[in-house]
Amino acid sequence: MARKAPRKTRSKAGSALPAALTGNPILLALAAVAVVFAIGLGVSLVTGGGDKASPLQASVPVKPPIPPAPPAAMVNAAPTAAPAPPAAPPAVEPAPQPSVKPDPPMTAPEPERPASAQTPEAPPAAPPPKTVVAMLPPPVPPVAVQPPSGNAALWRRNAVPVSVPSGKPVIAIVIDDMGLDRKRSTRMASLPGPLTLSWLPYAHDLPAQARAARANGHELMLHMPMEPSVKADPGPSALLVGLDKGEVLRRFRGALDSFDGYVGVNNHMGSRFTADREALAPVLAELHRRGLLWLDSRTTPKSAGIGIAQELRMPFAGRDIFLDNTAEVAAIRKQLAQVEQVAKRQGFGIAIGHPHDATIEALASWVPDVQKRGFVLVPVSAVVRAHHAGG
């Protein structure tokens, strides 16, 4: 009888537990969860996977057992899990579930390891060194081309450097026939400048005179004798229309080699020669070949010089005013005023004079004050560079 009494109490307790659970769905669910975790914990302990949290994580998603099918099985397990119900309310296990679920996404970065394993394939990328080597050759060709372009810019290399404020009209004063009268040429070269001094190729001791003038800050040109249309002697080795092309070039090249450091050539006399296009063309072609500029003195309105220079795309300029057709100081000052008007109108003015006493005196008083009147005195190369530098 003593053995039967405990059995009855067990059956009563067992029957009372299902009634309480079925009467409360929430407790039923909690009990089911507790059982599942108890089973999972037992399995993990049996298999010895204390550090393997992945089985628990894998078992968590198995919530399908929660439907009403399991109650019968849970009744049989109730006797062994009877102490579990009191532990079910504090079931802290559900709380870890949220912390357990984020863990699977944390494993997602693992696929990046293969990507990092592929990075060794990137180092073989030989393109970087190839591109660096390929980029080095391009700068070389321009350097190789510089010598001829430097020769073509001889007039630029021999030019007197000047700085011209933007918007200021500029005036270039060219003095022809330099070198014959050494005393007057020296006086002219002693004036403040920069002036542009054009030297006759048959002047005495030409290289020394030209160097002294350049040392004083003046620009140099060659004043090439050419045939006039009137009966006048242009001087020895002048360029004449009646000469064949070979002789014209021989004389011209001889004059070009008489001294150096000049920026270009203008014509001495030459009203007939410059009007003859066929005679003048090879002369300007030689100038262009040497990288020198052409200043047309415009001793005739029929000169072909500007047109040929434009066709050759070479640097050029043309005279605007003659200063001393009347070699008197007052007349020359009037001509200087005319140059100023031309410069105001077109932005620049080019005047040609000669080493006369009156011209030297007029320029001696005009040059120091020209800037006060809003003009800039420049060498002829500055006018060419700004307006007619050619191609």
UniProtKB/TrEMBL annotation:
Residues 71-133 are annotated as: Disordered. Residues 72-81 have a biased composition (Low complexity). Keywords: Membrane, Transmembrane, Transmembrane helix. The chain crosses the membrane at residues 21-46. The keyword Transmembrane applies. The keyword Transmembrane helix applies. One of its GO terms (biological process) is carbohydrate metabolic process. It holds the Pfam family Polysacc_deac_2. Residues 82-108, 121-133 have a biased composition (Pro residues). This is Divergent polysaccharide deacetylase family protein. The lineage of its organism: Bacteria, Pseudomonadati, Pseudomonadota, Alphaproteobacteria, Rhodospirillales.
